[in-house]
């Protein structure tokens, strides 16, 4: 019954999006700030695909080691965790998200690793991560920073749970810079995204406690990876 209702909702939402009814698109209904309902599940599934290249880029900068303790903040549909699992052999992966739908879908998509104890996914907010100081070697967040409630304070919380010498990769499809596309400007307004400039990112990371910050961008792209090293 649940699956039948979900498929019905999917068909309706897809028809709406095909008609370009932007006010009622899957993304709008699914709520990228905190995914909810069947629309949220559909949206997360699409994001797993659309963010694949950005996710792979961010993971490459983490320089994962097989024994690392890894944290994914705002794990969404669980795609980043699944990608990183292939590089983690004796270590462990943890995902956190404050959306019940995201936690549920991430668990479904990583069921085997959870069953073996290689991975754990919990409901939690970046405002108060339920981990001890210095718990993780590597931390990643993909397309979630836009919605953090208090970015400067939340970055301090990330730095707190990162080990000394650890690496944190923040991946975003859009940041504020000269020459950004009209589509990105519209997305920032439409979804009320927090999109700092590169200099603002560097300053926030420094104030949060990171000893080194690297900014990775591409020509003719609005994407950015901010890499903080503690």
Q: Give the overall shape, derived from the CA principal axes.
A: globular
Topology pattern, helix = H, strand = E: HHHHEHEHHEEHEHHEE
Q: Kindly report the name of the CATH homologous superfamily of the largest domain.
A: Vaccinia Virus protein VP39
β-strand percent reads 15-25%
Q: How many β-strand stretches?
A: 7
Compute the separation of the termini in Å. 49 Å
CATH class of the largest domain: Alpha Beta
The CATH topology label of the largest domain is Rossmann fold
Structural class: alpha/beta
Structural features, described:
It is a single chain. With 230 residues, the chain is α/β, with parallel strands linked by helices. The protein folds into 2 domains: 2-47, no CATH class; 50-229, 3-Layer(aba) Sandwich (Rossmann fold). It has helices at 2-18, 26-30, 37-50, 52-62, 79-85, 100-109, 111-116, 151-161, 182-191, 198-208; strands at residues 69-73, 92-97, 119-123, 136-142, 162-172, 212-217, 224-229. The chain has a 7-stranded mixed sheet with strand order 3-2-1-4-5-7-6, sandwiched between helices. Helix 4 packs across helix 5 and helix 8 packs across helix 10 (198-208). 41% of the residues are buried. Residues 1-24 have low confidence and may be disordered.
